[in-house]
């Protein structure tokens, strides 16, 4: 069994401590061939609208995303090691947005 680790960064048009992100997976350990679902949530916990919000997710080694299952901007297959971009746009105060996608663990 292997541990699933995903690297996530977020950015806004202006710096803000109110911008929060989380990445959770349906299983923290997987075996070769297992499928997992990844949930990414980006939130604005502040009192002003955040503009130009985007998030990136570096695809871990030995993980192959299902391209149709995601709204991330990357190559057709979102190759391992590739950095996928999620363009969110504006987030109102208290607003959050969520993306889900499926991945298969290919071994490692």
Automatic annotation (TrEMBL):
DUF11 domain residues: 20-103
Superkingdom classification of source: Bacteria
Pfam families the record matches: DUF11 (PF01345)
Keyword match Signal: yes
Leader peptide range in chain numbering: 1-17
This protein's UniProt keywords: Signal
Protein name, per record: DUF11 domain-containing protein
Organism for this UniProt entry: Eiseniibacteriota bacterium
UniProt lineage: Bacteria, Candidatus Eiseniibacteriota
């Amino acid at each position: 069994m292997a541990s699933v680790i995903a690297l996530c960064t977020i950015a806004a048009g202006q710096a803000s401590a109110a911008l929060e992100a989380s990445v959770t997976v349906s299983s923290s350990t997987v075996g070769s061939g297992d499928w997992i679902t990844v949930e990414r949530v980006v939130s604005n916990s502040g009192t002003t609208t955040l503009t130009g919000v985007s998030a990136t997710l570096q695809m871990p080694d030995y993980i192959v995303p299902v391209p149709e299952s995601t709204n991330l901007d990357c190559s057709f297959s979102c190759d391992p090691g590739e950095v996928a971009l999620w363009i969110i746009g504006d987030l109102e105060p208290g607003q959050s947005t969520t993306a889900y996608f499926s991945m298969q663990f290919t071994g490692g």
